[in-house]
């Protein structure tokens, strides 16, 4: 059984988008029960680190074994930078989150296209 790292990366990016969009609406009652996960810097940092590890693994595999094109890595780097910056500049959270998602999913999509035999 082979792991399609790009599909895993796109899935992780979409899960991150759902987390960022739905979780605040769904889990606003958690502080009533003593759970504070929404603005937990450790949780957010862990999600960003997970996205970085999965994304870098997928792009590294595609680059080394298939296409040797740097465009997916550049898109991913820009998207990942937006993810990190949204944690630093909370005022621009949504303005940085949207391009982060688009760039990261786009990087995985492009990497997947470059690794398919039809793209060669």
TrEMBL record:
Domain of life where this protein originates: Bacteria
UniProt keyword list: Membrane, Transmembrane, Transmembrane helix
GO molecular function, one term: mercury ion transmembrane transporter activity
One Gene Ontology term, aspect cellular component: membrane
Annotated TM spans: 12-35, 41-59, 95-112
Cited InterPro entries: Mercury-R_MerC
Protein name, as recorded: MerC mercury resistance protein
Organismal lineage: Bacteria, Pseudomonadati, Bacteroidota, Chitinophagia, Chitinophagales
